[in-house]
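Box 3.1. Reading complex inputs
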Amino acid sequence: NSIIGDNYRWPHTIPYVLEDSLDMNAKGVILNAFERYRLKTCIDFKPWSGEANYISVFKESGCWSSVGNRHVGKQQLSIGDNCDRIATVQHEFLHALGFWHEQSRADRDDYVTIVWDRILSGREHNFNIYDDSVSDSLNVPYDYTSVMHYSKTAFQNGTEPTIVTRISDFEDVIGQRMDFSDYDLLKLNRLYNCSSSLSFMDSCDFELDNICGMIQSSGDSADWQRVSQVLGGPENDHSNMGQCKDSGFFMHFNTSSGNAGATAMLESRILYPKRGFQCLEFYLYNSGGESDHVKIYTREYTAAHPEGVLTLRREINEIPTGSWQLYYVTLQVTEKFRVAFEGLKGPGSSSGGLSIDDINLSETRCPHHIWHIQNFTQLLGSQNVYSPPFYSPEGYAYQIYLNLNSLTNVGIYFHLISGANDDQLQWPCPWQQATMTLLDQNPDIRQRMSNQRSITTDPTMTDDNGSYFWDRPSKVGVVASFPNGTQFSRGRGYGTSAFITHERMKSREFIKGDDVYILLTVEDISYLNSTSNVPDPVPTSTIYNACSEVECQNGGICTVHEGRAECKCPAGEDWWYMGQRCEKRGSTHDTIVIAVSSTVTVFAVMLIITIVSVYCTRRKYRKKASSNPALDAQNQHAF
Amino acid sequence: APGEFVKDIDEGLDRDIFDINEDLGLDLFEGDIKLEEQGK
């Protein structure tokens, strides 16, 4: 289901423009979608700087795109009203990258049945198939979970599904709009020959004996042990929750013995940052003393300090006992480095220790806050819940409301609430984008399909009664109280009743160990307010970058020389690449072969010339001799 | 009640890309694919 033809491909880094017509929220959502591409594929995006072809994302009616790179210069992609959902943006950009819808692949009828008489009249063409002369499924099986698959109700003329999956279990799976599926990524990475991604760094669930190349530090008093259960807890790892026999490992620092102050440090392998900012995520389980704690370090290696400089990044105290807890640590490292996890035994008794599992490191931004909801199953379908209060980096206090008691869908809403900084803040609250993510707790960040919605506070938005929607909560809100009885004002909620269906909520690893995590980020996006503020250099012909159209092969580096793109080809001890795009490979072995063969050739040619000349000379003298016999006798004597 | 003190962006509907385009009267190829070429 990718369009066949190299001419439809984009460079790996796609130039883009976010046009002023876009809603503010849409701009923020598009930039978040780009981060998902950077984490899970080798596709990157860069502000347009004069390249011949680029994608112009603008707001027109609806959500649509062309398929593939059309080489038309400004290729438009529309993110209109209600299209500002991250998976919708991912879907439209997959079209631009060269993909059609999943159910239009040539072998579609092996997997789903189209019910033609339930399709809106005149819309039947939307269910056409591409045959495999124009569409390539890239040797990937049919993908019911594709973000590119129609839902079962697409173009229905009534209430019955237009698509029926041959395997009934997938009936409600098709049409997911959460994130890339594993097969989406497999196809995209195959089509664009991806072998790495810009922002993924490491993921470790400790299932392999090599524990992802992590090492035990010297100089500590104990080691972390790779185990699959601990008597004092946890009984199971976090990766599989004990579901898999003979697997399910994690690292454990036993504090039930030894003295207070005992330490164990576990270091990652050396990692090489590209962006200079990182987010470290991991799960901890404390079955030791309440004062047992963990310190997170980085050990940075520089020319000046080849042995590495250890820097404390975070100290995690008061780790709740008895269950796996999720933690995030923001890093800002620019040199090659290791991450180190130091367990420390505190005073007091311990019947277990500290355990760590499911580490993920990526060059992305950490969420600002985590809302950890325990015993979730009993809440779903019965109660509505409010999050604890959180503060945004700008100082706005806010709360999240989860509507769990509707029959089919989970709703999620963002509320501004009265807070300690209200007198110093701007009201109505200007252009704060709140991103609410239901975390898919797959141990590997690359395989997650988390569900995400973003909303943005538009200071000009008014409520039905004419007041400003995002005005100060004490002015436009209602009085509420926290569980401890403290009163506060809560502004009106803004969000969606259709965040996720109950069925999808119970799928994947959204609920794991009966825990659910909602990740929260509220950031100021006022800088996106007009193109002049978006980091897009104004395109002028003088800054045209010739290299943007050139792709040097085999690690060649493109440079611009006298306005023309040239590839500087890599070379090694006895090999080198050559040719305009470094497409040819040379080596000293070749040179030797050429030298020897040319020497032999020269020798052969000379030999032939010699033989021929001797032969001619002899023939010439023989003729002379035969034409003058007397001369021949006298000469005989003379020699 | 809490449930009433909110504004629902989706007005209770879980609308997909194609529903949104259909409601706008767009008859795009496969619901969201623009076929004709766009100029420079």
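In summary: Confidence is low (pLDDT under 50) at residues 536-545, 629-639 of chain A.
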